[in-house]
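Sat 14:20. Reprocessing the chain from the morning session after the first attempt stalled halfway. Input below, unchanged.
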Amino acid sequence: MLRELQYGDSMSEDSKEDFTLQDALAAVANSADGLYAFLLKNGSMELGYYKPDSVDEQQPHDQDEIYIVQSGSGTFTRDDEQIPFNAGDALFVAAGVKHHFDNFTDDFAAWVIFYGPPGGE
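Finished this time. Tokens:
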């Protein structure tokens, strides 16, 4: 069974290093909030999967991050910039920058990669 990593956890010797979409969806379904699950941590890099339900209420993060849109479409707001997105797109957000997803379809989900030191690179 996939073990959900919490922020700051490290991978153990028996942790997975490869993830399918089904693994990610199962981890999100079993997560505390049902929206996001950490899958892997290696050094400063953390891999997660995000599947918000109707509204994205996230706050700025301490690390730089990249979203890779798995499915769906909508608008990504980064500071005052609005960016249309579709499945397959990659979106970068520097540490501490306000951002969220708007007007996204019901099937929206994204892989999330956090990396680098607190405060960004």
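The beta strands are 36-42, 45-50, 64-71, 73-78, 81-86, 90-93, 99-102, 109-115.
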